[in-house]
Each structure stands twice: as C-alpha cells, then as structure tokens.
Specification:
The protein has 18 helices and ten strands. By secondary structure, the chain is mainly α. The strands form five sheets. Strands 1-2 form a two-stranded antiparallel sheet. Strands 3-6 form a two-stranded antiparallel ribbon. Strand 7, helix 6 and strand 8 form a beta-alpha-beta unit.
C-alpha cells in the first residue's frame, strides 16, 4: 500500500503522509475504514515506529484520520469535506491539478452487452478516473464519450478488456443526461493459449501480411471467422457475403487463436480463383525480386504457379531451381513404380535428344507428340519418359511444372544443352 523511496530528499514520514492522502483522495481508502496500526505499518515497511507515529499525528492534525481510543486509527468519516478544503487551498496557491470523475462508492452499476448479456460491476472497484489532465486537455476516456455522443454513435464495439470499465462510461453518459449506446464486446485474437496477438510485441499486422503476399480479401475473410461462426460449414466468403450473413448472435465469448497456416490455405484458394491477368499483377513484383528477373517469361511461370502457391512471397523460392543446374545424383532417376533408374534414363535421353533437335517448331504443345512417340518406340510408359526428361532438364526431384512446361520456359537451345549435360553426367 505504501512504497518508500529511501533515495528521495523527502523525509520518510512525509512520504507516508503524502501517500495516505493520495490513497484517500482516490477512494482506495474509504471513510471510516481502519488503517494499519503504527506498529503494523512500521514492521511492514521496516522502519522505526516513531516515524510512522509522526506521520499519523500529522494526518490526524489535517483531519484525514481519526484515532478512536484503543480501537485504532480510521479514515475520517467527513473526509470529502476535508479533501475539498485541501484542494481549494492548493488551487488558490496555483498548483497544477486534474479533474476526476467521482464514482459512487457503494452499490453496483449494470449494463447489457449484446454478446455477454447483463454485466454488473461493484462500484467500490471503480476508480475516480481523470477526465481533465493537469495541462487542461481531456483524457481519451472522457473525450471518447463526448465524441461518440456528438457523432450519434449507436453501437460501441471494442475488446472485452473494457467490460469492467464500461460502467465508468455509462456514469458519464448519465451525468450529462445522455442515452447509453449499445455495447458489443469482442474476444481478443490470441497468439497462443495465454498471449494476445499484439503489434506491440512484434506480431504481424495487416500491412505485414499484404507485403508477404496475402490478398486483403483473404485476410478479412479469415479474421472474420475468428470469434464469429456463420451458420453452415462454408469458410470462404466475399465481403458482400460476410455482410449479408453476419449476425451478432454468431459472436463467440471464447478467444480464438490466430492460425497463419489456416489463413495461408484460404489465401491459396483466393489466388486460384483470380483472373490470370490479376494474378500476374500481384505476382510480377515477386518475380522481379527473384533470381529469374529479366531471364524468363513471367507469364509462363505464372501459369505453373497460380495453383501451386499459398502466398505470393513463395514465388522467388519456387522459381529459383531453374537458375541452378547442378550435377544430378543418379538416385534421382530411381522410381520403383515406373521401373526407372540411371540406366533407363541414359537410354531414354539418348533417344529423345535427337528427336527434339529435329523439332522445327519448338513449343510445349509440339513436345508432347515427340515424347509419346519416343515412349512407344522404347516400349515405355509415357509417364516414365516425362519423368526422366523433367529431372534431366531441372536437376530437381520436385518442380512446379512438367518437362514440357519447363522446356518451353528454357527454350530449345538451353533445353538441349541441359539434356546433353545430363547424358554426360550419366556416362
């Protein structure tokens, strides 16, 4: 209750006096409330009882506390009048001051919230909050109520941390004779089971997610589903659909944990449905940040990636493989189901390379008949030939497109160069 600063120039007994006066003025200590005895306070603070006695004597001389024989010390029952007298004197002397909202000290204050129902708060826990600061400017809590009234705000929607302080605002409305707004308190979005998602603690905000390549409509869709449950199993909504389906009775009283993996999936669904021109509008800046900048046709890569990414910032990593053609490990060609290994790969590549060299109109469409014909002549499944060519062209086990798409991006000359290099490595 009392905290002493032993480095301060203010004597210890004066610090006790000042802090008691403040606790009384704030209503923390109430009229007729018993305070610790001299010995109890001295023991808890670790100081000489005579110091506490001196402080109590001064408080008693000011009328802040009274001593009732052997029963102990109590806050004076006419403390409000005493405080007013002290305050008037300080204002007269030109001291800075604040204006507080005087709260009732007994009874309860109730209001209705559209999510949580009827809320009742004990008035005893409501602090006399500051309305006007010492610089003459209003506090946010005061200005907010006045502004909401003047703007004819009908519904106040905010976080549920304000549930317990809303009675303070309603008492202000009552003091002015104004009608209360309707209240809707939302649960916070949680980072995990114990921590709220907070920009203050370094968590990402809306702009951070858009920079990572999330679509605004996907973010809004996902956030809307945190703390609100629509009727049915559908999860993807346009803004118009959210507006149409939203109802307060679907709001939850339980907090929701932010799951970026879920938002990532939802964003991918939005990306798949974009018109290709719009997709490329979003994708181009990320191609420009990648290792293929200025090297290959972005549109050709875009057609491969639109259905394969969850966010646009994945693009640089997805296309990086095509710039790094390193020696292929023979094990990459092994495929049990297709009966493939490095020896089969050597046969296939030696068969296909001359056929591609002879192809006059080199394109993705024209490569398919060549591969199918090679498969027939080799008595292999076409899937086996496609697989070997994709590995030989990319030097990767997994790629965002097949061999014909990759060859079309690389062009005839580079495709043949890579295939011949793959044969050399096999030899």
């Amino acid at each position: 209750m009392i905290n002493l600063d032993y480095q301060s120039r203010i004597p210890i007994y004066e610090q006790i006096v000042i802090q008691f006066e403040r606790l009384v003025s704030l209503g923390v200590l109430k009229p007729k409330e018993q305070i610790p005895s001299i010995r109890e306070l001295a023991t808890s603070l670790g100081i000489n009882p005579n110091t506490v006695k001196k402080a109590y004597e001064e408080l008693e001389s000011k009328g802040v506390i009274v001593t009732m024989s052997t029963k102990g010390n109590f806050v004076a029952d006419n403390i409000d009048a005493i405080i007013k007298e002290v305050v008037d004197e300080k204002i007269k002397n030109g001291e800075k001051y604040v204006i507080r909202q005087k709260m009732p000290k007994e009874g309860t204050t109730s209001y209705h919230d559209l999510v949580y129902g009827d809320i009742t708060i004990e008035n005893a826990v409501l602090e006399d909050q500051i309305l006007i600061k010492s610089d003459g400017y209003p506090t946010y809590n005061f200005a907010n109520v006045v502004d909401d009234h003047l703007m004819e705000i009908s519904h106040v929607m905010r976080g549920n941390e304000y549930l317990s302080s809303t009675p303070k605002y309603n008492l202000l409305y009552d003091a002015f004779g104004w009608e209360h707004p309707e209240y809707v308190h939302f649960t916070p979005i949680m980072k995990d089971a114990t921590r709220k998602l907070s920009k203050r603690h370094g968590d990402a905000n809306f702009d951070d997610f858009t920079k990572k390549g999330y679509l605004p409509e996907a973010i809004i869709n996902y956030i809307a589903l945190l703390g609100w449950s629509p009727k049915g199993e559908e999860e993807k909504f346009t803004m118009d659909e959210l507006i149409e389906k939203f109802s307060i009775d679907g709001l939850s009283k339980s907090s929701s944990i932010f799951d970026e993996a879920k938002m990532h999936w939802l964003n991918g669904e939005y990306i798949k449905e974009l018109p290709f021109e719009k997709f490329m509008e979003y994708a181009t800046p990320f191609f420009e940040q990648s290792k293929i900048k200025g090297l290959y046709d972005y549109n050709k890569f875009g057609k491969l990636l639109q259905s394969r990414i969850g966010i646009f910032s994945e693009i640089p990593e997805k296309v990086e493989f095509i710039t790094e053609f390193n020696k292929i490990d023979n094990e990459l060609y092994y495929h049990k189901k297709l009966k493939l290994d490095s020896e089969v790969a050597k046969v296939v590549l030696n068969k296909v390379v001359p056929m591609i060299e002879a192809l006059e109109d080199f394109s993705e469409e024209n490569l398919h008949p060549v591969i199918i014909k090679a498969a027939e002549e080799l008595e292999k499944k076409s899937g086996a030939v496609y697989t070997i060519l994709r590995i030989a062209i990319s030097a990767c086990a997994v790629t965002p497109g097949g061999c014909t798409e990759l060859a079309d991006i690389l062009g005839k000359e580079e495709t043949i160069r890579r295939l011949k290099q793959a044969i050399e490595w096999l030899n």
